[in-house]
């Protein structure tokens, strides 16, 4: 049973020589993204920045156009004011240094420039506040939109994706993209601000002397290259630690979740689990420490080279003054403009490197969304009616990480009005087969058809609308009792249908005992709702399936947690439920399968027996009879095959 989606782990086949611990199976060798990130150059980043700024603005545009327009306006105005302020500086300095003694007239002539300068400074401060407020408004909205798009994409992935090594990693990386998406706009905005400031100051600096700007640009280059490298190292380290971070997330879940809390205590597992946490944490630290040192070394080199290059610029400025190429008054302006251009370049380079790294995460996010982590549902578009017959023909299915097929050349059919039981020992393929019949998985070979149409041709979501499943591990949704049964899909009959389904499942007694009936929240740990016992939850899960207007009903160990009276109620009512549904029943309680019209016995993914309960019980050397006898041995009961399905046409029970 699960109440919340728990973090999953990929058990990837690694085959790595150094793998000595199963835990290390979380590591997937040869991550292509790391190779791709390694190949990234400064030039690539320079090309990438405008694209990333466009992307951040586009994301902002999606959530709040007015705020994006205002933000751009603010940045533009701020740049213009910066240029005016710098030019006014010359107007202020000039009269002050014109002679040794400053007269009142000189001071007065500086006043207009001083007014422009202070006005520009004041207005820029106001614009700074406005732009901070605008990005504070946009950033969380962008992150939420990014998260919604990601969640939507995840629901559009094939269920089989979860069994694929790499899917969970791609999900994690994409999730990181969501986390950093809120930084995207801020970084883009800083770059825009720094660019506006740079352009304005560059314009003023060029007016002072044309050589200064190219010199300064060259001086900024070493730091730029170093920043890009550092950003790349940090991104690669983050990718390399993805699997361990997922392991930490999973351990956190197992350590603190209510569902495992009793076992953590009774099994005195806390030190053991925390030790695993520490080990994985230490691995992450090692990787990030290495990355931090490498980044620091590169940044230091960049800083030293940049410092020397800046010294050259200042020497050039001094030479220009000494050779009389620029006036002393202009030196003041040049001095300020150089500082501004230099700060602007630093801003572009620094935030550019950050934005570049954010962009790499965002690529992971965008890639996931584009192809649902590489497993986008790509089936036909036909919407099926409730099926009259569901047929599997020679199907084979192998989980990606498995070394043998879970199902091997299996054929069977289930018709509306009949109950087909799948029986077999643990791991024989029963659950897998039921998932393939209900189109949750597609077979690797062979075909499953609904009324003659291959499930590959059917629209997946429309197909699942015709399926009701009670899985072995059913969800205990942290919702009201009503929503737990309707799953938000109320029928025209409303609560009458909900209560009818609850009665059929024995959940009516559960609901009667709830303090607010169907309105009661069933999630104590979340919102102070009411908690149910395991069996009570199973009754709710059954009511959920019975409420659904589905043509195919799949019950996988549907009464494992029920008391004998509740179990009896389910199985005596099942025949009635099967009147307008095809029912697939998976159970180990063989006395219950006597209700079935036909039984299919699986062993290691192959059908080894099929027939009516009477036929299979009569086969003394068959697996079914053996399991039956084992189950009844301790009670001393004798097999008592009775056929409760007289109405079934004999030819309907054909298995081919
Ligand atoms: N997600 C998965 N990834 C890899 N192998 C899987 C996965 N799920 C099941 N298997 C394997 O497929 C085989 C069939 O599993 P399945 O769950 O269908 O068996 P089952 O008959 O329903 O077993 P049980 O009676 O224990 O519920 C088993 O060998 C199992 O280990």
From TrEMBL:
<dbReference type="InterPro" id="IPR003593">
    <property type="entry name" value="AAA+_ATPase"/>
</dbReference>
<dbReference type="GO" id="GO:0005524">
    <property type="term" value="F:ATP binding"/>
</dbReference>
<feature type="domain" description="ABC transmembrane type-1">
    <location>
        <begin position="69"/>
        <end position="357"/>
    </location>
</feature>
<feature type="region of interest" description="Disordered">
    <location>
        <begin position="635"/>
        <end position="656"/>
    </location>
</feature>
<feature type="transmembrane region" description="Helical">
    <location>
        <begin position="190"/>
        <end position="219"/>
    </location>
</feature>
<feature type="domain" description="ABC transporter">
    <location>
        <begin position="390"/>
        <end position="629"/>
    </location>
</feature>
<feature type="transmembrane region" description="Helical">
    <location>
        <begin position="300"/>
        <end position="322"/>
    </location>
</feature>
<keyword id="KW-0472">Membrane</keyword>
<dbReference type="InterPro" id="IPR003439">
    <property type="entry name" value="ABC_transporter-like_ATP-bd"/>
</dbReference>
<dbReference type="InterPro" id="IPR039421">
    <property type="entry name" value="Type_1_exporter"/>
</dbReference>
<dbReference type="Pfam" id="PF00005">
    <property type="entry name" value="ABC_tran"/>
</dbReference>
<dbReference type="InterPro" id="IPR027417">
    <property type="entry name" value="P-loop_NTPase"/>
</dbReference>
<dbReference type="InterPro" id="IPR017871">
    <property type="entry name" value="ABC_transporter-like_CS"/>
</dbReference>
<dbReference type="GO" id="GO:0005886">
    <property type="term" value="C:plasma membrane"/>
</dbReference>
<keyword id="KW-0067">ATP-binding</keyword>
<dbReference type="GO" id="GO:0015421">
    <property type="term" value="F:ABC-type oligopeptide transporter activity"/>
</dbReference>
<keyword id="KW-1133">Transmembrane helix</keyword>
<dbReference type="InterPro" id="IPR036640">
    <property type="entry name" value="ABC1_TM_sf"/>
</dbReference>
<feature type="compositionally biased region" description="Polar residues">
    <location>
        <begin position="641"/>
        <end position="656"/>
    </location>
</feature>
<keyword id="KW-0547">Nucleotide-binding</keyword>
<dbReference type="InterPro" id="IPR011527">
    <property type="entry name" value="ABC1_TM_dom"/>
</dbReference>
<dbReference type="GO" id="GO:0016887">
    <property type="term" value="F:ATP hydrolysis activity"/>
</dbReference>
<keyword id="KW-0812">Transmembrane</keyword>
<protein>
    <submittedName>
        <fullName>ATP-binding cassette subfamily B protein</fullName>
    </submittedName>
</protein>
């Amino acid at each position: 049973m699960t109440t919340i989606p728990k973090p999953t782990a990929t058990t990837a086949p690694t085959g790595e020589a150094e793998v000595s611990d199963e835990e290390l199976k979380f590591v997937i060798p040869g991550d292509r993204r790391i190779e791709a990130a390694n190949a990234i150059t400064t030039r690539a980043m320079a090309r990438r920045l405008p694209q990333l700024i466009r992307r951040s603005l586009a994301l902002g545009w999606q959530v709040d156009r007015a705020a994006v327009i205002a933000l751009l306006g603010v940045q533009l105005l701020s740049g213009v004011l910066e240029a005016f302020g710098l030019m006014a500086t010359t107007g202020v300095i000039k009269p002050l240094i014109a002679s040794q003694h400053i007269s009142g007239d000189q001071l007065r002539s500086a006043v207009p420039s001083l007014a422009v300068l202070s006005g520009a400074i004041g207005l820029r401060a106001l614009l700074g506040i406005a732009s901070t407020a605008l990005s504070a408004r946009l950033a969380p909205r962008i992150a939420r939109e990014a998260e919604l798009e990601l969640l939507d994409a995840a629901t559009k992935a094939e269920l089989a994706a979860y069994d694929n090594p790499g899917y969970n990693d791609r999900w994690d990386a994409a999730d990181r993209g969501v986390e950093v998406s809120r930084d995207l706009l801020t970084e883009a905005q800083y770059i825009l601000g720094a660019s506006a400031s740079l352009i304005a100051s560059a314009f003023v600096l060029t007016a002072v002397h044309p050589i200064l700007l190219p010199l300064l640009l060259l001086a900024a280059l070493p730091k730029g290259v170093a920043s890009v490298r550092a950003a790349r190292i940090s991104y690669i380290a983050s990718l390399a630690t993805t699997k361990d971070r997922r392991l930490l997330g999973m351990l956190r879940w197992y350590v603190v979740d209510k569902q495992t809390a009793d076992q953590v205590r009774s099994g005195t597992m806390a030190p053991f689990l925390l030790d695993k946490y520490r080990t994985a944490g230490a691995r992450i630290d090692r990787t990030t420490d290495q990355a931090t040192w490498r980044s620091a070394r590169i940044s230091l080199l960049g800083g030293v080279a940049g410092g020397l290059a800046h010294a050259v610029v200042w020497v050039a400025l001094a030479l220009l003054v000494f050779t009389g190429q620029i006036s002393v008054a202009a030196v003041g302006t040049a001095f300020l403009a150089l500082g501004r251009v230099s700060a602007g370049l630093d801003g572009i380079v620094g935030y550019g490197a950050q934005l570049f790294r954010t962009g790499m995460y965002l690529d992971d996010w965008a890639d996931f969304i584009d192809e649902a982590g590489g497993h986008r549902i790509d089936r036909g578009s036909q919407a099926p009616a409730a099926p009259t017959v569901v047929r599997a023909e020679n199907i084979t299915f192998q989980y990606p990480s498995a070394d043998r097929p879970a199902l091997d050349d299996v054929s069977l059919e289930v018709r509306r009005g009949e109950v087909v039981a799948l029986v077999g020992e643990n791991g024989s393929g029963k659950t897998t087969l039921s998932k393939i019949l209900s189109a949750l998985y597609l077979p690797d070979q062979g075909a499953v058809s609904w009324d003659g149409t291959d499930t590959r041709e059917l629209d997946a979501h429309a197909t699942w609308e015709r399926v009701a499943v009670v899985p072995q591990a059913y969800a205990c949704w942290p919702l009201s009792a009503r929503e737990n049964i309707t799953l938000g899909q109320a029928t025209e009959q409303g609560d009458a249908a909900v209560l009818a389904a609850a009665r059929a499942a024995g959940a009516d007694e559960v609901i009667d005992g709830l303090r607010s009936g169907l309105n009661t929240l069933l999630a104590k740990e979340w919102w102070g709702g009411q908690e149910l016992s395991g069996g009570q939850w199973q009754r709710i899960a059954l009511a959920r399936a019975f409420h659904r207007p589905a043509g195919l009903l799949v019950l996988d160990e549907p009464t494992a947690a029920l008391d004998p009276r509740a179990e009896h109620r389910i199985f005596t009512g099942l025949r009635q439920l099967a009147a307008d549904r095809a029912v697939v029943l998976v159970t180990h309680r063989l006395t219950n399968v006597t209700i079935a019209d036909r039984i299919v016995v699986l062993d290691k993914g192959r059908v080894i027996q099929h027939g009516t309960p009477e036929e299979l019980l009569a086969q003394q050397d068959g697996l079914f009879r053996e399991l039956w006898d084992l189950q009844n041995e301790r009670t001393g009961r004798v097999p008592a095959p009775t056929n409760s399905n007289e109405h079934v046409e004999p030819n309907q029970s054909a298995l081919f």
